[in-house]
């Protein structure tokens, strides 16, 4: 599942960074949503059908590949779109991802509490996903009708940087062309942008968001999900310890951290505190390893009480959400208006790269314990 999820996610996010200028935005976003909706509908139907294990496994892996491939295009396109808008509009995308994780964790706890059958719970999950995706498609189709959105899209397509204006003046003087804007018609009024040049401007933010998710996914959930409660003693808390203390707490605090950037964006986009704070998150890897992770073979348990684990999880998840959202907001704002969409797509690629690296490192982190 990790390979089928992360490899397509990384490849297609990278492709989107280079080809997003050649494929219309509407096709990338609405098309990706439509494919994901179709896959979830198929999954919901298969819940009610008995399929032998091998075909079911094969089909499930294929669906994971499709969802993550088109999900990568969707995510990269959304961050590129948000890069065109004011900085505050990247925050809702980040907090929305956190809210989605919170909803999934809460649904898992409700399913445990209700004692419903696994098949019924799975069907409910996928039907809910289909309903939400359908709302997203309708919302996106409504978006172009908003004057606010039209203004920023027109501004992105029509504004020329000072360098581009100087080039046009030279062309007008040297060639004496009557229509100096003719050379731009091939690109719909948009000057060419270089992915490499843009990366040089945003590399600190790009590498920071990559490192954030490398640490997070390397630890959560591969290591954190194996922590055992020392307080439960076989009670109901033992059943709910991981769903509540690991999944629900992580997603709630991650959502809180992402949402905080809507009202507070400290430190600034050029501050050295951002990479410093990002690097400090590496301390959470040994802290979680030294919790009561079971089974274990090499490392001792230094933080056995449940309270230590909960405190670490709060700080770990909140810092993940806040710093990741901060980097994703600042990245596209370190370049010009015409380069913002490409910068957003590049940031989405490094976010996905962090997810992939974290997934790979999670095996090593678990083996060390």
Provide structural commentary.
The protein has helices at 2-19, 25-47, 53-84, 91-114, 118-142, 147-158, 162-175, 195-219, 236-260, 273-280, 284-289, 306-330, 340-368. By secondary structure, the chain is mainly α. It has one domain: Growth Hormone, Chain: A.
- Structural class label: mainly alpha
CATH topology: Growth Hormone, Chain: A
Per CATH, the superfamily is MFS general substrate transporter like domains
3D shape: globular
What is the CA–CA distance across the termini?
Answer: 23 Å
- Helical segment tally? 13
Order of helices and strands: HHHHHHHHHHHHH
- Can you give the mean pLDDT? 84
Instruction: Provide the helix percentage.
Output: over 70%
Radius of gyration, CA atoms, in whole angstroms: 23 Å
The top-level CATH class is: Mainly Alpha
* CATH architectural name: Up-down Bundle
| Count of all domains | 1
Based on DSSP secondary structure assignment, what is the total number of beta strands? 0
Low-confidence stretches: 159-169, 176-190
Beta-strand share of residues: under 5%
Largest sheet: none
